[in-house]
Amino acid sequence: MPxxxxxxxxxxxxxxxxxxxxxxxxxxSFGYDNANKNIYLAQVTQAGLQLSGESAPVSSADRNxxxxxxxxxxxxxxxxLGYMYLRGFGHGMNMGVEPVGGSAYLWxxxxxxxxxxxTSRGTxxxxxxxxxxxVLDSTSSSLATYTPAPGSTINTATxxxxxxxxxxxxxxxxxxxxxxxxxxxxxxxxxxxEPLATxxxxxxxxxxxxxxxxxxxxxxxxxxxxGQYLYMLHGNAYGTTESIGGQDVxxxxxxxxxxxxxxxDLTTGAFAPAPPSTFNQNVNPCYTAAAYTLDYRxxxxxxxxxxxxxxxxxxxxxxxxxSGPAGARRATIYGKTGLVQPS
Length: 343
Prior knowledge:
By secondary structure, the chain is mainly β. Helices cover 5% and strands 45% of the residues. The strands form 7 sheets. A 5-stranded mixed beta sheet has the order 3-4-5-6-10. Strands 16, 17, 20, 21 and 22 form a 5-stranded antiparallel beta sheet that branches. A 4-stranded antiparallel beta sheet has the order 2-25-24-23, with no helix packed on it. A hairpin with a 2-residue loop joins β16 and β17. The chain is globular, with a radius of gyration of 19 Å.
């Protein structure tokens, strides 16, 4: 069924600017509880904390290798309402938020495996209730875990709050990154045999109209699904360099960056044609200068926001950014509200 889609070229508005999370590390992802009007954010647990069951404070390097995460619960203004710690889960690259009554269940990666770059990634998915103050281990017998695609690794998830679906990203047995969409009710029951869509991850290096020798190969920093469309956020922190033509080139210039948001049609696996727009740019993927005045600016996460649940088809998408100096990071969210209705 055709669904509305975000006008990537619409303006980006300042929703939350440089607010603190539970820990002082960079946020990795976030998601909205649209029923209870809360925001959940994931980050690697900061150095120097000693949680229950630990004999001594743990270093940042070990937290990264272990896949230890901190979840912060915000109100809609960015005030901290609660937190929990996850041990052995992964990097927190993406998360799904599923409202249940007056609280929420979170969908995250789990069963972290360390990588050569000093970080780790979860190999499966987990679903669990947010409980403020709790320390949850990946080995807990109370934790619901899933392997949506047999043999898959690097699993992450996002919840489509408009159509009641679960989007997942995973690496298949051939090493290809893929996306699938499932009915959320079936996913909760561990039924994965009826995906609504399956596509390979497209490469955004073919950005039309932009000088790729300047923007390089931006990292994937988050994704979201609404209806027939997948949204991806790419970019790097200011000052990031890449070897291009044998030379180190700054691909994310201060006050400019290389942040792109894109829209993929899940029925074809291709970038959706750029819709008519009243704004200057009319491309997909679309460069964004949102929050460009941050001293430190790294894109981190996409979230689907529904202002009024009586009109679920009227949604916005928030773009997350890590900001602030090392050791005192903050989180920023800018939002796009322009929608294009199906013809």
